[in-house]
Specification:
Blueprint: H1 10-29, H2 37-44, H3 49-62, H4 69-79, H5 84-95, H6 103-117, H7 119-130, H8 146-152, H9 159-172, H10 178-189, H11 195-218
Helix pairs in contact: 1-2, 1-11, 2-3, 3-11, 4-5, 4-11, 5-11, 6-7, 6-10, 7-9, 8-10
């Protein structure tokens, strides 16, 4: 098992964080390799220099996003003195949920339906059943997700996804978010079906370990309180 984080030097922890990211990249690519993370992913997925650079851009844009669910989970684990690997695993567990790292798969399902039935019909079906279209809108960005703009501005989306983006934006008034951008990037580069999640996980692992290191340095245990709001029992 990995050693607990407390009582170790910052240098030792930073080295372990780098090793964690290295091991996760090896797990994604299936190859024990050296070099920059984006180049290793690109080589494994058959990308040329331009594709590798777009992967680099995605990794940078996804590495950190304040206290999202997975990052908070990683910080809570780190606050207990758990190992960095355990903290990253806590983050990965939260990321696996369908409302977090699983969102690109929902966007892919809508895109597949759009190709089969038409973009307007696919969006209308999502709005009828869920009142929202996956891949569009973000509570933190009422004027549009800047990460999506930065990523989508670097390549031409497949024509079917361009139609879907315009249709969904017209129907909902919401702009494409980073989940849609990840799917568009994956399809534009011909990446494997699970590439959006893999990109998300590898990128965010860097953020999780950075947050964990910061939390460890505080020495504080994260222990939120709860307030009972149910019916008060009879005396």
């Amino acid at each position: 098992s990995e050693p607990a984080a407390r009582g170790r030097t910052a240098e030792a922890l930073e080295q372990e964080a780098a090793t964690l990211l290295d091991v996760l990249t090896d797990a994604v690519t299936g190859v024990t390799d050296g070099g920059a993370i984006h180049e290793r992913l690109g080589r494994a997925w058959g990308c040329g220099p331009r594709g590798c650079d777009l992967i680099r851009r995605a990794l940078v844009l996804l590495a950190d996003h304040e206290l999202n669910a997975s990052t908070f989970a990683a910080r809570v684990a780190a606050s207990t003195g758990a190992s960095l690997a355990a903290s990253a695993l806590a983050g990965l567990s939260a990321l696996s949920g369908p409302l977090h790292g699983g969102m690109p798969a929902r966007v892919a399902a809508m895109a597949l339906e759009a190709r089969r039935l038409g973009a307007r019909e696919a969006v209308a079906a999502r709005l009828a059943h869920r009142s929202w279209a996956p891949g569009f809108g973000h509570p933190l960005y009422p004027d549009g997700d800047p990460r999506a703009r930065a990523l989508l501005g670097g390549f031409a989306s497949p024509a079917s996804l361009e139609v879907l983006e315009l249709t969904a934006q017209e129907a909902t008034g919401e702009h494409a978010n980073v989940d849609f951008a990840l799917l568009a990037l994956s399809e534009a580069l011909g990446l494997p079906e699970d590439a959006p999640f893999a990109l998300f996980a590898v990128a965010r692992c860097a953020g999780w370990t950075a947050h964990a290191l910061e939390q460890i340095a505080t020495g504080a245990l994260i222990r939120p309180r709860a307030r009972y709001v149910g019916t008060r029992p009879e005396a």
